[in-house]
Design brief:
Largest sheet: none
Number of strands: 0
Strand content: under 5%
Radius of gyration: 19 Å
Low-confidence stretches: none
Structural class: mainly alpha
Amino acid sequence: MLTQFVLLLPTLSEIWQLAAFYFINTLVIWRGCSAPELKAYQMIGTQMLLSLTMGAMSATPHYDMNSPFTMVLLILISLMTLRFSVMFIEQLLPLKSQQA
């Protein structure tokens, strides 16, 4: 993805080229992460694709890596927090059923 961002994306000038770029990358992301346990990676990969390339579609292309990586980092931290919370709650539930 990063190689495409640096080498391929600046050369795309037509709308059909950008559409093909998005279509192929989205297809690869969704086919590569089609297992049920990889659904979070599907969402993060697609979101990263869109946020990384958003600057290339403006009238004067600008390429900023800080905001997409910050967003992906925040999403990953949120997902990790959610996962640990669910694991903690699942460990507490059998204890409540044994006490009843």
